[in-house]
Amino acid sequence: MEDDRSSKKRKVRIVIAGKDIQLNQDVLDLSYNQLTSLSTEIGNLGSLERLHLYQNQLTSLPVEIGKLSALEKLWLDRNQIISLPVEIGNLSALKLLDLRHNQLASLPAEIGNLCALENLYLSGNRLTSLPAELGNLSTLKELYLNENPLTSLPAELGNLSALERLNLGQNQLTSLPAELGNLTALKVLELGQNQLTSLPAELGNLIALEFLFFDHNQITSLPAELGNLRALEELWSDHNKLTSLPAELGKLSLLKHLYIFNNPLTSLPSKIIKWTATECVEYFLTKLLWSEQNHQFYALSIRSAIFTTLMISSVNNSIPRHPEAPFYKLPKEILYYIFHFVCKDFKIY
């Protein structure tokens, strides 16, 4: 059947980079060339379904790109594209648009017309704001906006009812719209490396959320509503300014990994400590003294390790261990006494 379909396709000739190309397939791959421009004849490829243009030197696209009515996937990553033609919104069949690592400072409002779009990748650009029309993409499942200088988000992002993954890491966001709490299909939310000082309580409405990252921010406290994230498996809150955690986090029965190192914590909810004291201190000391990155032992104060630079992980009693690390084979009785010694001044509530 596939051969029969291919044989019926109309053969089209276009000239790209000085080369005469005869095309009778639904895929055109021009990646890893040194293209600085794209021929206007690209608009003649009405049956094209996949177009690969990544790793070139394109700075713009011809308006004729909007004539590719059958196009489903368009890869433009790792070029030098400064802006998009408004005709990009005419690609009614487009499901995937990859624009990572370009020079985009803005997006046309017409991008909201891509009614079939499921995957939109905009990482590593120069975006400082987003058009409200982005919220019209009702079929969108993945939206990557990390590594941009975004300072704010439109409330309309909360209209992306099919969205499952949202990456907003490595921006300059100082706050989040409460409407993000409307993304009830969301499974992964990445907010790390911004300038957030708080999280909206409405994030507690994300009933499908499995992974939440807001590490490397300036957050001083967490809303109790995070305890409603009953599907949550991983919570990354390290490198913030948290002095305590809401007791409601103890309701997260599916939580497997809780990362809270590099916070000035002075107290912990008792429900979060679900493993024994022996297991806890053994893992503390293992993580403290063994560096997976440089394979060298390093020493810090145990007290600092537990409540400031410590990763509390594997809440459900599955403690990863490094046999190479010291303290791994210490008798449990000794570990037990060390734990009580280093924790005696901290509050457990």
Describe it for me?
- With 349 residues, the chain is an alpha/beta fold.
- The protein has 2 domains: 2-269, Alpha-Beta Horseshoe (Leucine-rich repeat, LRR (right-handed beta-alpha superhelix)); 273-349, no CATH class.
- The protein has helices at 2-7, 277-289, 302-307, 332-343, and strands at residues 12-16, 19-23, 27-29, 50-52, 73-75, 96-98, 119-121, 142-144, 165-167, 188-190, 211-213, 234-236, 257-259, 267-268, 347-348.
- α2 crosses α4.
- It is elongated and about 70 Å long.
- Residues 1-9 and 274-330 have low confidence and may be disordered.
The gyration radius over C-alpha positions equals 25 Å
Shape: elongated
Helix fraction, binned, reads: 10-25%
Q: What is the typical, i.e. mean, pLDDT?
A: 80
Task: Please give the structural blueprint.
Layout: H1 2-7, E1 12-16, E2 19-23, E3 27-29, E4 50-52, E5 73-75, E6 96-98, E7 119-121, E8 142-144, E9 165-167, E10 188-190, E11 211-213, E12 234-236, E13 257-259, E14 267-268, H2 277-289, H3 302-307, H4 332-343, E15 347-348
Parallel strand pairs: 3-4, 4-5, 5-6, 6-7, 7-8, 8-9, 9-10, 10-11, 11-12, 12-13, 14-15
Antiparallel strand pairs: 1-2
Brief descriptors of the model:
4 helices, elongated, 13% strand, 2 domains, 11% helix, 11-stranded parallel β-sheet, alpha/beta, 349 residues, Leucine-rich repeat, LRR (right-handed beta-alpha superhelix), disordered N terminus, two-stranded antiparallel sheet
